[in-house]
């Protein structure tokens, strides 16, 4: 929602979750922070200092860590290798889907404590590339040989990441529209710490006091996360154990959160 706050919170998250060492965290706070690494990547002017910091992050965070869900295992392909998320300055560390997506013998793995198939990406890839499925969906491949999750065909202006969207949230609240900002607390790509800071700052800017102080909320008698409400319209909530794609990793807690929001019922 705001470039520097969101991306700098990545470094704090890495350190607080044990992904990087104290010396590396010190480099992030004194030499080159994560938002600066992003900026240099976008502009194409990478400094020696930031390159060294990025290399140190690569050295300490294994490829087998899914930064969208740091507490989860990853899906291993038949080759035991992983696919880096494209178009990211730290792409060697961003691993999500297996590289051998066409393989028919991908390992089935489940996230500990959840009935979640971590290899669902492979299955979706195979399913949507079936000719009968494409015919049923009336989907025609144009200019590509197969459907894929990510593509280099669409070119995005990464400079637009500098455009803050937290002001849009403020506009909605000022217009009388209820807003929920939520985060999976195991997501290091858009960490909850950055979102929480931005929402709290927005509340202060709008003159909103906390009507529901920061507190745990429950789903099925277990802690579902933490929440805080500002005024009558602005809510920040975390989903405990949730990933970047919280409805995938934590479906029960996500459903409880969305149902409460849509019905206008408080979580606590």
UniProtKB/TrEMBL annotation:
PROSITE patterns noted in UniProt: CARBOXYPEPT_SER_HIS
Lineage: superkingdom: Eukaryota
One Gene Ontology term from the biological process aspect of the record: proteolysis
Assigned GO CC terms: vacuole
MF (Gene Ontology): serine-type carboxypeptidase activity
Gene3D superfamilies: 3.40.50.11320, 6.10.250.940, alpha/beta hydrolase
InterPro entries named among the record's database cross-references: AB_hydrolase_fold (IPR029058), Peptidase_S10 (IPR001563), Ser_caboxypep_his_AS (IPR033124)
Keyword set, alphabetical order: Carboxypeptidase, Glycoprotein, Hydrolase, Protease
Family per similarity comment: Belongs to the peptidase S10 family.
Protein name in UniProt: Serine carboxypeptidase-like 45
Organism per entry: Dovyalis caffra
Lineage summary: Eukaryota, Viridiplantae, Streptophyta, Embryophyta, Tracheophyta
